[in-house]
Amino acid sequence: MTALTLRRPSDPGTVTVSGSRRRLIGLVIALIVLLALLVASVLIGSTAISPAVVWKALFHPTDDIDQFAIRDFRLPRTVVGLVVGTALGVAGALIQALTRNPLADPGILGVNAGASFAVTVAVGLLGIRNIQGYLWFAFGGALIVTLMVLALGSTRRGQSPVMMVLAGVCVGAVLGGAGSALELTNPDAFDAMRSWNAGSIVDRPLDLVWPILPFFGVGLLLAFAVSGPLNAMALGDELAVAQGVQLVRTRVLAIIALTLLAGGATAIAGPIGFVGLMVPHVARWIVGPNQRWIFAYSVLLAPSLLLASDILGRVVMRPGEIPVGIVTAFVGAPVLIALVRHKKASGL
Amino acid sequence: MTTTPLRRRGAALTAAILSVSLVLTACGGGEDTAGAKPGDTAAETRTVTAGNGPIKVPAAPKRVVTIGNTDLPFIDMGGAPVGVSGAAPSEISLLPADQQETYKKATSVGGEVDLEKVAALKPDLILVQIPDAEFKKMEKQLTSIAPTVFWGLDTEWKALAEQLADAGNVKDSLTRQKAEYESKVATMKQTYAELIKTTKFVNLDRYSNSDPGTYVIGDIGCVEIAQDDIGFNFPKAPAGKDPLAYTSLPFEQLTKLSQYGVITYPADAEGKPTEVFAPVVDTNTWKALPLVTSGHALGVFCPGNNSYGAVLRYLDSLDKALATLPAKK
């Protein structure tokens, strides 16, 4: 079949009819995989509960103990996995496009460091012990620190990706040190941060997620809104400007989007590594450099990775569990190594 | 001779170490003299045997410094140390009021023991229970300050109490506590003979560093007294395996507790679930457990498990909780 070229072949936004269909089919498959994992996440746990009980728990609820386990534990962690995974995946794609750095992840702008430090302060100095209490500290910390990094990384000519990354690394190092000092002098903070830093989607009630959802919604909308300009910027700033892209506005909007997404995700689940780093790689490997497709695939693949890792963490050490942040690292590292060795996959 | 900056720094460091050693030695020497002064009894010595061998200690020590796990057991037996290494505030808050007062009067020598502070207190006896490796690092300095009696962490609590009481000259108090303990154990064995014979217990626990959404089946701590000394049937890890308490279980596993007859869980002195355990009690699964709804889930206060006084308070709490069971005997 002859492909119909709609735009210049060298443009990341280039779309062909056959390529488009292939990507669409891939997207449908990714959606089916995600749906299957959502179902599996509710069905599989550290105790054996029959599908019939799961069905009743969801659609004909009673006060049966097993049904409580489904509604109170498995359902919330599945929803949290879906939401947090989506946010981390798109945030990762944004930061990689923005910095043109295939090894960038949301943490590079200080999101994780800001959230961690704020939680340490909340636990260590204010005596807040539960996640309901320090959720907003984490979110606020992530936002404030990212804005600080944005300011530090800005020059008279606008934001420089390299400067922002350097500022993010520096601020992250300073806050990491200050947080460690606080943890070492406060056993309560040390204990709380040990769990929080592992990254987990367990015991996060849905009440915790709903208030963050509007921020995620805005983040996702902004991400897709800047995907076109980011495609142009991938060709270089001068070419992007020639195509009418406003560099400063695009960068600021992209940073706001990734801060809302990554900050919210980190506030809910703690720092979960590799999802934001790996999924955009996989997406790029499947669909090429077009940011719209990368974002669309990341929306589906990232929660799939997170849910698959969480399910794996529930069954490999039965009756105990491994926090999802540790599993994503175990699963993500080898896959990422394989991907970065694939030149085409890693290039931006 | 010319010295390089590195050598000069090395020389300065050596000088500093020597100075500190001299100060410590001087303090230790002064203490020895001072140790002989307070009273004639201090001049009399006896030999006690502990983890660091036979040690000559004053017959009636007047200025005792406790380090590590000896702080609270020594106070529990009526001892009044002049210096303590410091327990967590959460542990101190569980002590009876008089013991809290005694603790507050003592000078803290720091969790990371400040040897100069120890020396400044001019102790005539130092009682230590810390990891062997840590003790090795400061053994010389401590023994130069005062006779130092050391126990490793593997010393069983009853043996520690005996030897601590002997070294610290608080044996009378220990004898009273032991008698009370043995009487309490015998009474509970008799009162709950049927429960001991027929009922499967399980003790749940949660720690301040537990992952969210997890708890453990607690088989270490106070529950060992109920299990080993009274004979209640609590689950235990097979010999040679890690304690059950080392495996965190997801809240989902709460649904499996129906196989037991009685649940015990950590509570404060008033019987309310501890702050750390509260997330378990707050789940709907817990609230719907038949054992919970039928009154077979008992909050038990555990103020400590390494001295007779603390263990007696645990047994009192367990006794009180068991007495509320619908069919207790």
From TrEMBL, chain B:
Domain Fe/B12 periplasmic-binding stretches: 63-329
Signal peptide range in chain numbering: 1-26
Keyword Transport in annotation: yes
PROSITE patterns, per database record: FE_B12_PBP (PS50983), PROKAR_LIPOPROTEIN (PS51257)
Subcellular location: Cell envelope
UniProt entry keywords in alphabetical sequence: Coiled coil, Signal, Transport
Name of this protein: ABC transporter substrate-binding protein
Coiled-coil positions: 164-198
Family, per entry: Belongs to the bacterial solute-binding protein 8 family.
Record's GO cellular component terms: outer membrane-bounded periplasmic space
One BP term from GO: iron coordination entity transport
Source species taxonomy: Bacteria, Bacillati, Actinomycetota, Actinomycetes, Propionibacteriales
A Pfam short name: Peripla_BP_2
Natural source organism: Kribbella albertanoniae
